[in-house]
């Protein structure tokens, strides 16, 4: 069984990037295409989301002035991964949470 890695990034107004990922367990072996379709349907303009609302860590730089900087994150993609899951919730729980937004 492969876990699912959700890859995303924060891009500030100067286009400096901070990358991150979350690995979810995938005990029911949901197909990546199904997960990605749902995620893309919930993104702002097909690209952005608010990490805090989706229950994943925010990747802001240490000195972020939100009067000038965006507060959203950018979806990069998902993939199968054999890394140990490090999220408290499974991919099924994550999908249910994103779907309810």
Question: Summarize this, please?
Answer:
With 101 residues, the chain is of the alpha+beta class.
Helix/strand structural class: alpha+beta
Helix content: 10-25%
Portion of residues in beta strands equals 25-35%
What's the number of domains?
A: 1
Ends distance:
28 Å
**DSSP helical segment count:** 3
The strand order across the widest sheet is 2-1-4-3
Rg from C-alpha positions?
Answer: 14 Å
Q: Which word captures the global form?
A: globular
Fill in the keyword field for this structure:
globular, alpha+beta, 101 residues, single chain, 3 helices, 4-stranded antiparallel β-sheet
Question: Would you give an account of this structure?
Answer:
- It is a single chain.
- Strand 1 (3-11) and strand 2 (17-24) form a beta hairpin.
- A four-stranded antiparallel sheet has the order 2-1-4-3.
- The protein is globular, with a radius of gyration of 14 Å.
- 24% of the residues lie in helices and 28% in strands.
- It has one domain.
- It has 101 residues and is an alpha+beta fold.
- The mean pLDDT is 91.
- It contains three helices and four strands, in the order E-E-H-E-H-E-H.
Topology (SSEs and partners):
Blueprint: E1 3-11, E2 17-24, H1 32-42, E3 48-49, H2 51-54, E4 73-81, H3 91-99
Antiparallel strand pairs: 1-2, 1-4, 3-4
């Amino acid at each position: 069984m492969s876990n699912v890695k959700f890859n995303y990034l924060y891009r500030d107004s100067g286009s400096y990037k901070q990358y991150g990922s979350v690995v979810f367990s995938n005990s029911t072996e949901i197909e990546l295409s199904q997960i990605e379709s749902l995620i893309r349907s919930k993104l702002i303009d097909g690209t952005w989301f608010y990490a805090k609302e989706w229950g994943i860590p925010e990747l802001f730089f240490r000195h972020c002035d939100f009067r000038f900087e965006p507060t959203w994150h950018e979806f990069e993609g998902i993939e199968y991964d054999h890394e140990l899951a490090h999220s408290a919730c499974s991919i099924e729980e994550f999908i249910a949470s994103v779907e309810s937004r």
